[in-house]
Amino acid sequence: MNLELVSFVICPFVQRAVITLREKGMSFEVAYIDVENPPEWFKEISPFGKVPLLKVDGEVLFESAIINEYLDEIQPPQLHPSDPLARARHRGWIEYGSNLLFEQAKLILAKSEDEYQQQKESQGGSFARLVDEVSDGPYFSGSDFTLVDAAYAPLFMRFELLKQKREDLAELLPTRLQNWSRNLLERPSVKTSVTDDFEQQYIDFFKAKESYLFSTEEA
């Protein structure tokens, strides 16, 4: 099987797929594009104009959750619960994690202190809603790493980076989520799921967007 992942270097949704591929020990190639100036071939095969795409022997899959479920079906170890109800619950919290990523992007793209504080409050409320759904650890549902964990690791990786810019963000993450985040970020599949220059690329991208968070003296 020939797998090629089409990626934008700082995209958290692509990172979800990379983590899953790493967990399963699958061989794959990565094709990096600039999503703001995408090549014509990408426009032709991406229905939403978004990454990730996964080319499987020439066939194209899109949307990270669908890509990860496909990978989970074809290659062990199984990262989704076998019980249908538990599996459906996990799917719901993966979607919730996607919303948290969109909220995080709004926080980073805030243009003023007031807007930043508003988005910070929103993100804090979303984190608080998640606390009671997370196990005592080390992962979302206990000892087993699942697709939910693959979905949240990119969020926490970026949150750690943002805390270096604004220490006040640390107060948003309850203790249980801090523990979950630490366990995820220590996992080899997560550590190797981004490029060596990820942090600088991430900062440069949002500085170019005139992010208040990355343009203040504290940053």
From TrEMBL:
Transmembrane segments: none
Any one Gene Ontology cellular component term annotated for this protein: cytoplasm
EC class of the enzyme, as a word: transferase
Annotated GST N-terminal domain residues: 1-79
Listed Pfam families: GST_C_2, GST_N_2
SUPFAM superfamilies: GST C-terminal domain-like, Thioredoxin-like
Listed name of the protein: glutathione transferase
Annotated GST C-terminal domain residues: 83-205
Source organism of this protein record: Solemya velesiana gill symbiont
Keywords carried by this UniProt record: Transferase
Catalyzed reactions: RX + glutathione = an S-substituted glutathione + a halide anion + H(+)
EC number, UniProt record: 2.5.1.18
GO MF term list: glutathione transferase activity
